[in-house]
Design goal:
Length: 184
């Protein structure tokens, strides 16, 4: 039993060391999204900023606070496509093309999901919904513009907290399809 406990302690220390290197430690505001990233062993950076509840756009606020182009900061939107919830991840500089999202998943019609349902299904609050670490993993479509960047930023699962990672890692971890779903 002592051997198992020693091994468990070593694994815990390795996870904590990796989490702290990757920015997902408790002091950096660990969330299900950052825990998922750390567990996957991908490189990422956490960016925290003071959220202003009076700001008119969560995504634009994040871009301004981090000093990052709005083309590299992506928002996570939950839509209802033919009765199934689907996640669309698009640049904050634009908007989600619902028809293109429906087409990308082989559907006919799409509408924005009820915010309460989106929050309950993902486990995150509006303005902090992350494509990563969701309570129920939803089908995800990432706007193809993401592939033109080395790294992009998405919500880390809380307002005022973003995670920066490669679009390839985001697509891999979410099982996302890349498609032209964003509008300028």
């Amino acid at each position: 039993m002592a051997k198992k406990s020693k091994k468990q302690q070593q694994e815990k220390e390795e996870r904590e060391a990796h989490s702290n290197r990757a920015g997902a430690g408790r002091r950096a505001g660990g969330t299900p999204a950052t825990v998922a990233l750390a567990a996957a062993g991908v490189e990422f950076t956490v960016h925290a900023y003071d959220h202003d509840p009076s700001h008119p756009s969560y995504g634009e606020e994040a871009a301004e606070a981090m000093g990052v182009s709005p083309d590299r900061v992506f928002k996570t939107l939950v839509a209802d496509v033919d009765g199934a919830l689907v996640v669309g991840v698009v640049p904050v500089a634009g908007s989600l093309d619902l028809k293109a999202l429906a087409t990308a998943v082989g559907g006919k019609r799409a509408a924005m999901a009820d915010p309460v349902l989106a929050e309950r299904t993902t486990g995150y609050v509006r303005g902090g919904i992350s494509p990563l670490g969701q309570r129920k993993k939803l089908r995800t479509v990432l706007d193809e513009s993401a592939s033109s960047h080395t790294t992009i930023c998405v919500s880390a699962g809380r307002r005022g907290l973003e995670v920066e990672l490669s679009p390839e890692d985001l697509a891999k971890l979410t099982g996302a399809t890349l498609a032209p779903i964003g509008r300028a």
